[in-house]
Amino acid sequence: MRTKTKYFILYFLISAAAPLFLLTLLKIFLFSRPELSYDIYYFVIGLQLISGFFINYWYAQKIAIRQWLKITLAIFNIIGFFYLMGYNMTLISYSEIVKQSWNLYKKGWKKIWVYLLMLLVPTLALSALSTISLYLSVYIPSSTMASEIIILFVFAASLVFAVWTSIALVRALKEIFIGQEPKEWKTNFSESSGLIMPIIYTSILVFLIILGGTILLIIPGIIFSVWYAFTFYTVIFEDKRGFKSLSASKSLTVGRWWAIVWRLIAPGLIFGILGALLSFVVIGLVDLIPMDPLGYAIAERIMSAVVNVAITPLSAAAILILYLSAKNNPSGQ
User: pTM for the whole thing?
Assistant: First the structure.
């Protein structure tokens, strides 16, 4: 049995399943002592932390990482579990993904600003539609079917345009990343138009598969979402369609599922926190401006959309860089 498999089983049984089982038993036998509830929770949490510490430290020693990192991963044992399960020397590290994504943004923002501006249009349109729909439902409940059809049409058109712009943006990011001069934006949009429908129907296919797996047992849905995380990129850069693009994406995760999970989660979490902080600051500044409630609502939606669009290249670059690393370093399985 591989050491990583032993580690996973030990962590699951001793640090996850055993505390939950013990918590259930204690609550059953001590149901007549409600004053002990908090003591039980503290005991079980302490047991999880201690057992997770020693299990993580043991596995960190096995893979010979630095001492300070061993202790850190042992203390923060849940984060440490994902890091250790995702430890893989053949793939780019999560910290390097974050660094390269940031450098790519700094180096290329002058060349991609037009895509961000265009991405802002459907984002604002979708935000405005949600506000209009809410207004109609509250103040004009008997709105005509024609208005609803118009809203639906604008919604669909905004989504299609957002997909089109996202394709062009990712193509430009790749060209900048590999050191090429990106194509003129009109040329890029023209060449990207043929990928809109393949991206849409492949995305629907992925959504249905993940939804089906989630409805069945949840865990299959999680597995499928990692397998098909690169489908968007296999359609764009490998000219795959439908199930072939799904198969190509899955092949990049074979033998290193946990490594891919960690490298998807960690940069996404970092950039998500950055986006949340920026939104908090910007909306806080908006709240300082005297406006009526409707004005506040509109201004906050606009500024949230601007922040989301501004962060989008970082998130797109992170997955792109991971995709290229996985593509250039096959798992061999």
Answer: 0.83
